[in-house]
């Protein structure tokens, strides 16, 4: 599968959240995207996005996703990402069985966690975020993400 746009994958996550009436804040969305990226990388040895996770204070962040949903601050996201042409894109279910499987695994494992709880997981010792933070690197490396132990 060629890399996909993180905002499209955000819509896949939001679709699950809206369907199950589970609140997702911007921070929670970022961490779910990170865990999805990590687990997809581990299963396929391929990156899910071309975008790289930045090393921000509260964990890994995709800046494009951050700026799209920043208006929600610490509140629940209420709407899908819509592009400038008024279209709502997501990764089509069934187009990649591994993506579908990892999306469902990550969602079911972490859906009831808060953004802060998920951020705390990304801050554990030996995580890709901690390695990047301690080395003053702006981006997490895929090698460190791949090597990360799954909690």
Q: What order do the helices and strands come in, and which of them pair?
A:
Blueprint: H1 6-20, H2 26-44, E1 54-56, E2 59-61, H3 63-69, H4 97-110, H5 115-122, H6 128-134, H7 142-147
Antiparallel strand pairs: 1-2
What would you say this structure looks like, in words?
A hairpin with a 2-residue loop joins strand 1 and strand 2 (about 60). This protein is about 50% helix and about 5% strand. The mean pLDDT is about 95. The chain has one domain. The protein has a two-stranded antiparallel ribbon. It has helices spanning about 5-20, 25-45, 65-70, 95-110, 115-120, 130-135, 140-145, and strands at about 55, 60. By secondary structure, it is mainly alpha-helical. It has seven helices and two strands; from the N terminus they run ααββααααα.
Give a short summary of the structure.
This protein has about 150 residues and is mainly alpha-helical. The protein is built from 7 helices and 2 strands, in the order H-H-E-E-H-H-H-H-H.
How far apart lie the N and C ends? 26 Å
Helix-and-strand structural type: mainly alpha
Overall number of domains: 1
Spans with pLDDT under 50 lasting ≥5 residues? none
Give the helix tally: 7
Strand order of the biggest β-sheet = 1-2
Cα shape: globular
Radius of gyration: 14 Å
User: What percentage of residues falls in helices of 4 or more residues?
Assistant: 40-55%
Give me the strand/helix succession: HHEEHHHHH
Strand content: under 5%
| Strand runs, count | 2
Q: Give the biggest sheet.
A: 2 strands, antiparallel
- Average pLDDT works out at 95
């Amino acid at each position: 599968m060629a890399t996909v746009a993180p905002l499209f994958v955000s819509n896949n996550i939001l679709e699950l959240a809206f369907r199950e009436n589970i609140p997702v804040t911007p921070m929670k969305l970022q961490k779910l995207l990170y865990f999805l990226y990590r687990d997809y990388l581990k299963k396929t040895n391929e990156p899910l996005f071309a975008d790289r996770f930045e090393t921000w204070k509260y964990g890994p962040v995709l800046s494009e996703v951050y700026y799209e949903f920043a208006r929600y601050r610490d509140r629940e996201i209420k709407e899908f990402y819509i592009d400038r042409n008024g279209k709502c894109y997501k990764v089509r279910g069934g187009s990649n069985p591994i993506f579908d499987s990892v999306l469902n695994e990550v969602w079911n494992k972490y859906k009831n966690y808060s953004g802060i709880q998920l951020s705390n997981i990304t801050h554990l010792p030996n995580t890709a975020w901690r390695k990047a933070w301690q080395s003053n690197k702006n981006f997490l490396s895929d090698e460190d993400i791949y090597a990360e132990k799954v909690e």
